[in-house]
Every structure is written in structure tokens, then in C-alpha cells.
Amino acid sequence: MSKELFRRELAAFQPYVPGKPIEEVKREFGLTRIEKLASNENQLGPSPLAVEAVRKAAETMNFYPESTAIDLKKELAEHLNKQTDFVVTPDHLVIGNGGEELLQVIAQTFINEGDEIVVPAPSFGIYNTTTGLMGAKTVSVPFKGTEFDLEGMVAAVTDKTKLFYLCSPNNPTGNILKLEQLEYLLQNVPEDVVLILDEAYYEFATNLSPDYPQSLSLLAKRKNLLILRTFSKVCGIAGVRIGYVISNLHIAAEMNKVKLTFNANRLAQEAARGALKDTDHMEKTLALNALSLKLMTEAFDRLGLAYIPSSANFIFVDCKKHSKDVFDQLLRKGVIIRPGYFWGWDNWIRVSTGTEEQTKFFIEKLEEVL
Of all residues in the chain, what percent carry a pLDDT higher than 70? Predict the structure, then answer.
């Protein structure tokens, strides 16, 4: 008697493709200098207070971490309550091993085989992979020009729709949802559909865009709302993997049932606690990000390249030639970027911000390629 060995969904599964690692590129092309501007990492480095906290915590890493991350939750709730009138408590929070694991927990919490999700295109591919593995159908709604087609997304909702994803700032395009757009979604997305706002680049958006809305206040207006944020980007601790979800009590409780017992390790929890206190590092990160974006947009304007104004720590630009060619040629010159053909935008590339030196190096090599 034969039986299926693997999940049926794996037959059509397309895993997320991460950016090329620096050491691999060095070996492949015999280069000594590589600037990786592909993964939206903090080029200023990690928060010094996070590093100090990790050093202290390393002495006790023979013990399992606190499974509820209660100390981090208390300090995080206090931090979030400075942003909104909605009172966030530790019970409103879910701590995860980075945003990617939290997206997996979301899928495992909500998705039954045959459910549907609605996503914009282009956007973060992990939404599709995590839910697809659980048997969901992805309904992708293409951008209208360089903007979200919110009306099209709402029209795509059916009685099978379970989750409705929006990334703001959106990865890879960098544009944001404004308050009136969020209000439109609250009024038009059915109450029994879970609205997910991925705000991984929240801090950059609040610094760059005065009209970026404080979505936490919407938790008082909608029962099925979930907001995802991370310490990876602005705090510079992507390597230890820690992120969080803010939601209403009923959703947070169900997600906390699903997550693994010790999903957020001891070092990551302490790194996040240290980073929360490090306002100096955050301010320097935001200033460097704004400078890098300014240098790039000035260069794109000079070169006559169209781009989408960004509220994140990356920018999406039309190179007027196929992004695979641009990617390959930049790689050989020591710059790693993200080609847009992954998202079906063949002539576009996504470039992460960097130090002033890294940014100028990228601009120089891009000019050579073009």
C-alpha cells in the first residue's frame, strides 16, 4: 500500500529566495570588497545597548529562555503606549523568532485548507509561502501603477477569504498606507476577515513621512486587526531574530497557543530589551537612512531613472534594462542588490540604504553598469 509521504502543498511550493551572502560572492568572483545592499539590514550596526545586553545574557545561556518573554513584553508595552491612546498590555503581544516566524504562526493560527488570502503584488513573498503551505489559496491583486489597488483588493474578498495582508511601508516598493486608506479598509473589509498590517519598517516611515498613520489606535475600532513589527531593522539585531505582533486579546491568546514554547531565545529577548532603551542608536540610524536615500534619489534624478519615493530603508528604482542583467553586473563589481524580476517588475531593482561610503560606491557602480 502506497501513501503520500509529503504534504500535498509542497508539490507547488515556491520557497522564499534570500539575498546572496557576502562570502559566497567573494569566493565566486574573487572580490575583496562587497557591499551588500540587498536585505534591508542596518548598516550602522547593532544597537550598542543590545550588544551589551547580549554579553550579559550569554553567561546564563545554559538556561531555557522565559517562554512568555514577560519582561520584554512589559517594557515593550510601555514603549508602545507612548505612541497611542489605545492601552497596550503584555497580553496584547506575541513575541516571535523574527517576523518570518510570526507570519508562520499567523498562518498556523488562522488557515484551514481551502481558505483564501488577499495580498497586493508586489509585496513580501512570505505571506504566500506560509499560508500556501497550510493549504490556502493566494489571491494577488496587482498594483495600479505604483500604488496599492485597494478597491481591487476589497473586490477580491470572497466568503473564503480569511486573511487580508498589507505591508506599510511596502516591501519592495517602499510606499505607505495613509490614514484615509486605512479607514477605507476598516469600513470595507468584512469584519470576519483578519486585517494584517506588516509594519516592519515602522520607525523609518514615522521619520520620513509626516502622514504615516499610528495604526495602534485602530485596534480600538476593529476586532480582527493584527500589527506586525520587528527589532531587526532599525535596531540592527536581525541576526538574533526577534519581532512582535500587537493585536486584540482574543487573537494574541490564540497565537500564543500556537507559537513554540521557547521560540524567542534568551539572547534575543535581552537584545530587544537593550535596543528599546537605545534612543541614540535609533536616531543615528534614522539620520543615516535619510542621508542614503537623499544621495540615491539625487543620483536617480540625474540619471533620469524613475523611482518610487520611499518611506523605508530601501528604494525601488527603474533601471530601464532587465534587472537580472543589472544584478549580475553589479555583483561582479562588488554590489549586491535585489532584482525586481522576482516580483514581476523586470526593469526595477530594490536597493537598501547604507553608509555614505556604501551608497556612493553603489551609485558609482550603477553608473558604470548603465
Answer: 99
d(CA 126, CA 263): 18
Which neighbouring-strand residues pair with 229? 244
Nearest CA-CA partner of 269 in 12, 61, 103, 106: 61
List pLDDT tens digits, range 135-163. Answer: 999 999 999 999 999 999 999 999 999 99
Query: Which residues are within 8 A (CB) of 26 and not within 5 positions of it... i.e. 6 or more apart?
Result: 32, 34
CA distance 263 to 243: 11
User: Does the pTM exceed 0.85?
Assistant: yes
Q: Which strands, in side-by-side order, build the sheet including 348-352? A: 307-308, 314-318, 348-352, 338-339
Whether the per-residue pLDDT at 249 is higher than 70: the answer is yes
d(CA 275, CA 48): 8
Region of residue 305 (left: phi > 0; alpha: psi -120 to 50; beta: else): beta
In the chain, the amino acid numbered 284 is K
168 burial level (CB within 10 Å; 0-12, 13-18, 19+): buried
Judge whether 353 and 293 are in contact, CB under 8 Å: yes
Backbone angles phi, psi at 45, to 5 degrees: 105, 180
CA distances 31 to 26, 40, 64, 338, Å, are 5, 22, 41, 19
Cα–Cα–Cα angle for 308, 206, 211, nearest 5°?
70
**With contact defined as beta carbons under 8 Å apart, do 181 and 166 qualify?**
no
pLDDT for 103 equals: 98
How far apart, in whole angstroms, are the C-alpha atoms of residue 55 and residue 272? 13
- Structure confidence at residue 15 (pLDDT): 78
pLDDT band with cut points at 50, 70 and 90 for residue 211: very high
Quick one: pLDDT at residue 344? Answer: 96
Name the strand (E) or helix (H) holding 48: helix 48-57
